[in-house]
Amino acid sequence: MTIHTLSFYDMRDALSLPGCPVCRLKAEYVEQFIDNLLYEKVNDPGLRDRIRQARGFCHEHAWGLARRGAALGVAIILRDVLEELQRHITTNLLEAASPSPGRLHRSLSKRRAKAAATQLFAVLGPQEPCMICALASEAERGYLGALRERLLGDEGLLALYVNSDGLCLPHFRQAIARVDDPAVFRALVEAQHAIWDRLDQRLSEAIRKSDYRFSHEPSGDEAGSWLRAIAALAGEPRRRGS
C-alpha cells in the first residue's frame, strides 16, 4: 500500500472543489495558523519575538488578524511591536541630540539628524519577513511538490486534475519550474492546456450569448466564466470568506 503525505490527501480533496487547489489550501493554511496564533499561541515567546523582528505582519496578513474574538490576542501581540518601535525611536532621538546650541554644533546636529533619520528608517523596517508569508510559502511549496510527485501512477492525481479547474497561472508556473521528470512535465502541461481550453470555450459561449440574437438561450456552464478567468490568470481572491 502506498503511503502518501498529508499534502497529497489535502491536494486530492481540493481538486474536487472549485478553483485553484493550491490557492485554496494556502488560504486555509493561513486561516488555521492565524486562529491558532490568536487563540492558543499568543504567549509563545518565540513567535512573539519573530513578530517583533518582522515589525508585525505584511498588509494582507495584518488585516487578516481582524476577526471575531481576536481583540485581546491582537492587542497583546501588536503592543509588543509598538513598544519595540518606541524603544528604537527613543534610542535614536538620544543619539541624534546635539550637546550644545553653538553654530558648529548646530551644523553637527544637522549631520546627526540626517544620519539618525537614515538609521531610524532602517531599524523601523522589517528585520525579517512576515512570519505568515514565510510559512504560507513553505506550505505552498509542499502542496505543489505533492502534486508533481503524485500526479502519475496507479493512485495518481492526474484524472482528478484534468477534471478540475487546474492551477492558476502563478501556481502553474511555479509547478513547472521545479519539474524534473519529462513524463510529469508533459502530463501536467497537457492537462493544464485542456483545462484552459475548456475555460476558453465557456468564455466564447458567454460572449456569444451576450448577442441579442442568442440572449434568450438559457445559461449553462459559461455562467460566471468571466470570474473563473480572473481567478485562473491571477489566482483566487485572498479575502477571508471570498
Précis, in short:
The protein is mostly helical.
Structure, explained:
This protein is mainly alpha-helical. The protein has two domains: 6-124, no CATH class; 143-234, no CATH class. Helix content is 67%, strand content 0%.
What distinguishing features does this structure have?
67% helix, 242 residues, mainly alpha
Q: Can you count the beta strands?
A: 0
Largest sheet: none
**How much strand?**
under 5%
How would you sum up the global shape?
elongated
Determine the N-to-C terminus distance: 38 Å
Mean pLDDT: 88
The gyration radius over C-alpha positions equals 25 Å
Q: Secondary-structure element order, as H and E?
A: HHHHHHHHHHH
Oligomer: single chain
Q: Uncertain spans, ≥5 residues at pLDDT below 50?
A: none
